[in-house]
Amino acid sequence: MKKIGLYFGTFNPIHIGHLILANHFAETTDIDEVWFVVTPQNPMKKKDSILGNRQRLELVYRATKDYPKLHPSDIEFELPIPNYTINSLTLLEEKHPNKHFTLLMGEDNLVNFPKWKNYDLILERYELYVYPRHSERPIPEQLQDHSKINLIDAPKIELSSSAIRTAIKKGQNVQPLLPPESWSYLDEMNFYK
């Protein structure tokens, strides 16, 4: 049974940090593939400045097409908004009963994980692979040393999509921060300007 790491995000836009992390999981852990699950709208994020779903999916598609272990997923486009991760996992299992799913998340998200809808059910049914990310608060006590939570020694990348959007608005060159195929699409479409 193939083990799929699910990397949820708005990917607004996808950048090389996302690719480095996803590739690290696919190449150095027991995960066979990483699926970039493009989120229509995160209930915890403001909606302004989010590109359309299909445009962000296209950016992810272009970024991952040369990597056989990395794939875009639009599974959440089928679900009502706001959507919750537990609903996405249920739908993925229905559509792919022959795959084993694992969640990939940054340490900053793990800190807020107990606020997620049905987080205890997620932990009961799925493993979490957590990569280092700067967080002001410690990991909640009930999640420390949890058997389903694996802290992975991955590159610590301090790149953010919001900083990239700000730089684009200021007319700065962000080309080195984006996968080449995504950059050319973004530039051609004048996104974030």
Task: Produce a short descriptive summary.
The chain has 193 residues and is of the alpha/beta class. The chain has a single domain, classed as Rossmann fold (3-Layer(aba) Sandwich), CATH 3.40.50. The protein is built from seven helices and six strands, in the order βαβαβαβααββαα.
How would you describe what is shown here?
The chain has one domain (2-158): HUPs (Rossmann fold), CATH 3.40.50. It is 35% helix and 18% strand. The chain has helices at residues 16-28, 53-64, 85-95, 107-112, 119-125, 161-169, 180-188; strands spanning 2-9, 33-38, 70-73, 99-106, 127-131, 149-151. α2 packs antiparallel against α7. The model has no long low-confidence stretch (mean pLDDT 92).
Keyword list:
single chain, alpha/beta, Rossmann fold, 193 residues, 6-stranded parallel sheet, globular, 35% helix
| Biggest sheet features | 6 strands, parallel
Low-confidence parts: none
CATH top-level class: Alpha Beta
Approximately how much helix is present in the residues? 25-40%
Overall geometric form: globular
**What is the ordering of alpha helices and beta strands?**
EHEHEHEHHEEHH
Topology of this protein?
Layout: E1 2-9, H1 16-28, E2 33-38, H2 53-64, E3 70-73, H3 85-95, E4 99-106, H4 107-112, H5 119-125, E5 127-131, E6 149-151, H6 161-169, H7 180-188
Parallel strand pairs: 1-2, 1-4, 2-3, 4-5, 5-6
Helix pairs in contact: 2-7
